[in-house]
Amino acid sequence: MAGRRRRGIRLRELYAFSGGRSPAVAGGYSREVHCNAPGEAGGHGYAGNKISTTKYTVVNLVPKSLFEQFRRVANVFFLVVSCVSFTPLAPYRAVSVLLPLVVVVGATMAKEAVEDWRRKQQDVEVNNRKVKVCREDQAFHQTEWKNIQVGDIVMVERDEFFPADLLLLSSSYEDGICYVETMNLDGETNLKLKQSLEATTPFCEEDSFQRFKALIKCEDPNENLYSFTGTMHHEGLQYSLSLQQLLLRDSKLRNTDYVFGIVIFTGHETKVMKNAMEAPSKRSKIERKMDKIIYVQISVLILIVSIGSAFFGIETKKDINGEPFQRWYLRPDDTSDFFDPNKAFLASFFHFMTGLMLYGCFIPISLYISVEIVKVLQSTFINKDREMYYEEADKPARARTSNLNEELGQVDTVLSDKTGTLTCNSMEFVKCSIGGIAYGDVETESLEKNPHHQDPDYWGYYKDSHCDQNNSIKGFSFSDARLMNGEWSKQPHSDIIQKFFQVLAICHTVVPEVKNESTKILYEAESPDEAAFVIAARELGYEFYERTQTSISLHEFDPRIGRKVDRTYKILNIIEFTPSRKRMTVILRNDEGQLLLLSKGADSVMFDRLSEDGRASEAKTREHVNRYSEAGLRTLVVAYRELSEEEYREWNEMFEKAKNSVSDNRGDLVDAAADIIEQNLILIGATAVEDRLQKGVPECIEKLVQAGIKIWVLTGDKLETAVNIGFSCNLLRKDMKLIMITLDKPDIVALEKLGDKEIIAKACFKDIEKQIFNARAEVRMAGSRDVLGLVIEGKSLTFALAVDLEKSFLELALGCTSVICCRTSPKQKALVARLVKKGTEGTILAVGDGANDVGMLQEADIGVGISGVEGMQAVMSSDFAIAQFRYLERLLLVHGHWCYRRIAAMICYFFYKNIMFGFTLFWYEAHASFSGQPAYNDWYISFYNLAFTSLPVIALGVFDQDIPASICLKFPSLHQDGVKNIFFSWRRILGWMVNGVCGSLIIFYLSTNIILPQAFRKDGSIAGAEILGATMYTAVVWTVNCQMALFLNYFTWIHHLFIWGSIVSWYVFLVVYGSLPTTISASAYQVFVEACAASPLYWSVTFFTMASALVPYFLFSGLQTTFFPRCHDLVQRAHLDGLYEHLIRKTIVPPPLSSSSS
To answer: Where is the P-type ATPase C-terminal domain (predicted)?
Structure first.
């Protein structure tokens, strides 16, 4: 026995009567599942339940991983060079050329192999989990997940994960409900309610499935987590299936002792596995530019190798002309093809191949892995930033990817959602309109900041001094003595008021919950709006306290007897709210036997559905709705109608047929059926709830605008509401001229009533085209001090995003300081993000908190998710996650600035040090008649990037800080350095390259002209190639590390350790490597201990050449900061001198938004 069934109900969501739209499924509806029939799954070719999430297998690990590594051009180059190093053409030993490539590629492959092994272990653990499955003997046995097949009946117990996608048959509750935690799927911690069909609820014991047979026909496997369509044929009857009966793999059973379910999808055909794909690949602009620089480096390498090969060919041909031979030491009369004067062209080609290896150090092989390490460490600092930790919710900032850190410092445009992003998404019921009369005394936050706030004629009718209530109830900030404490029953239209409260208390999907420790009822709602409505109804006399599958019960104030009574309403149908429908409807039967339809929805759809007799208070209600919207409140219109038995019966047959259909247009059929009954409504009134701004939003937006960042708000709210929120959050200002683009015009409305869609579309397109044309002209005519804001509603946006108008619309929007798009759908948000991204060269950041923002976050260059109350879908699809919008200021202006500057400087420095090192080789080879003779020992070259110069550049990328965080926030205009890409422009990159070339020339010239002409040792012997090479190499190591020390703005002990430690490690290497046998150390044998260390000339040349090589940087930096200072230089100087006020007076910082200038 499974255990005693539990009585009672603790519903958290109600979908059982849902008639919402199901998204179309690409795969069709061909799946058939034979329940409790072992072997049928194999006959249909359905996948097994064993899963594998690994990237590699034992067979393809090496080839696939190598393919991934050699997609990078630098690795391909070094692979070619390594192959050539095994030929006689190589100037170095093959092992010294191959080692750096093996280290870099091997380290990356090892990292991926370890990560994949961990995934493999997780797969084994999951596949070997146990669950009870009904087998051939009709008994339940513990079975491993990997052995489950489609059609099996499984029993899942409390706190266990579902092993596959199951169809719920029954549970430990009598009405077949269960609670599911879907954190692994969508990140949400609140429990979801699932409910079985009434026909399968009796199958609640282990021995009750002996004769259970059924055939399920449903949609094919797909990735949509929020839809499921199918039918079940059982005992000659057909039952409609929906998402309410589907238990998804990797979700967990909670607060329920056990459930029984039929396996529908297994393994990689389950919805969660269908969704197991990588997020859209995003690469930063700097990373893409870095690839181009690598190509430039390779081009420079090929150029200098070609120059050297050409000169070598010419000189080789000369060797055969005349006596004596010009280069007698090469024995041109008796030589190989490599130096044969008779085959000068072939010798030149061989020299070209040698040169590719000789100058391989031009290409920084460790650049990619170093940048990857730095970005991961930068992300750690973002995650640990206490200034972005939201203590109330215990939520720190999270860098969910490290690829885009530097992009934060280059953001040009921010696209933001409103509800839950700028606002708290915690609704307060503040006002209402009932029967054409406005109620509510509370002044809202948005009202206080509205430019018309001080106009008593504009707002005075909201005021009423009847009551002054101290609000302490979350979700209820309403105060009006005419309605409070049962006083509404004394109003002239008390019957309408009563109906209004009934709609609020009944028309919803809220579920009541009573905590064990108290009798207080808590409400679990799908949205904060619904919770606010139910709480308002409760406070005004209509307390919703119980819900079952077929009824809703209220403690209802009866004005006839003057006290509360218990009433139960039988729920017949619930037609849920969807973004396309914009309304919700409940059909019920009251205790008097009346059939009632209660509906609430957006004014844009509700007013058109009123009957002629139901419009008595329409004019006043419209006026109130508009005023509420202008005050920044969210509004819904409330209406009802009575139904006859015959009308309802006919409609219900049509509705059930639509719900039971198994086809792609099921949603359209359901919507069409719902549309038929939702007509001829009688208007009751309207609600107004306030969603207050999050803390710090106005100040954050002001800082971002001062930083030169354009801000667009994309919201589903009404135009008036969006505009008022714009004023509240400083996005719009009193001195700003607003350009409104809307189709809410009498001529368009008149056309819409005719119903010809083609004519309406053409007229709307032409109207929007004209509005955009006129607005663009207005932007061009506006003076430099004129500040413009653009507001466009969703219907107009549909036409503005058309192919013929999108460029004009974008040009108009970019000419405005602020842009607000209202009444936008999730798809429109994504399309706007795509348009701005493609139409501008700037970096686009999108920020949102809900599932409707996911498309926008993924389309933008950077997606930032707000971990608010709408679940975690946005966060899970984002690149960065923060708890509050105000943290965006620090994320962009502080971390963005630091990461951008660090990465840019790091990459520039990488190329600088490699060019300096590579060109010393080139100058030496030119000195040696381009003979292919290397200036340095081969192991010197191998360890240059791996040991002696790698750590300081990593420290630069992680720890350097040009200015403190407080100064970044004090001078937000510094953000423009990243927007204009000042620190990683081609001019700056080439400047660092030229610095490297100049430094290499100075080092080579001074070293050769000081060391070679005179005695090097005390015994009078001169320096050989090995001593010259060691001296030049020492000078290079000192120069590039001291250059780093000069460039740094912020020293830590780590910087000192890495910079001076790298120099010391070079000397340690010289001693250790030079002590090895000559077969290993070759030209480095005892070169430091016996020759260089004892020579004053070595030390003097080292420090003199190092100081001289740094002179070009000194001169350029000094001249630039003294005579051509940039904003960044001035701020740094002010930071050192404390002259902030002087800079502010010089207008480095833009004026506040309250001023008249932009």
So the answer is: 875-1125
Task: Report in angstroms the alpha-carbon separations of 343 from 340, 930, 949.
Answer: 5, 17, 41
pLDDT digits (tens, 9 = 90+) for 481-511: 898 888 888 888 889 999 999 999 999 878 7
CB 370 within 8 A of CB 342: no
The whole-number pLDDT of residue 1148 equals 45
- Helix locations, 140-277, DSSP H: 183-186, 271-274
pLDDT digits (tens, 9 = 90+) for 843-888: 999 998 876 788 888 889 998 988 866 556 677 778 898 989 999 9
Give the pLDDT score at 912. Answer: 93
Known binding-site residues for Mg(2+) equal: 417, 419, 849, 853
CATH of 398-422+694-882, one of 2.60.40.1940, 3.40.50.360, 3.20.20.105, 3.40.50.1000: 3.40.50.1000
Binding site per annotation, positions: 417-419, 530, 577, 600, 634, 715-717, 823, 829, 849, 852-853
* Closest by CA position to 157, among listed 195, 196, 130, 188: 130
pTM of model > 0.85? no
Catalytic residue from among 186, 385, 417, 529 = 417
User: Is it true that domain 426-441+474-691 has CATH number 3.40.1110.10?
Assistant: yes
Give dist(CA 424, CA 108) in Å, integer: 44
Tell me if residue 157 falls in helix, strand or coil: strand
720 and 802 in contact (C-beta within 8 Å)?
Answer: no
Is 417 noted as a catalytic residue in this protein? Answer: yes
Exposure string (b/e) for 768-780, b if CB count within 10 Å is 16 or more? Answer: bbebbeebbebbe
Domain 148-275 has CATH 1.20.140.10: no
Binding residues for ATP: 417-419, 530, 577, 600, 634, 715-717, 823, 829, 852-853
Residues 293/851, Cβ–Cβ less than 8 Å: no
Is the confidence at residue 1151, as pLDDT, over 60? Answer: no
- Note whether 935 and 1025 are within 8 A (CB): yes
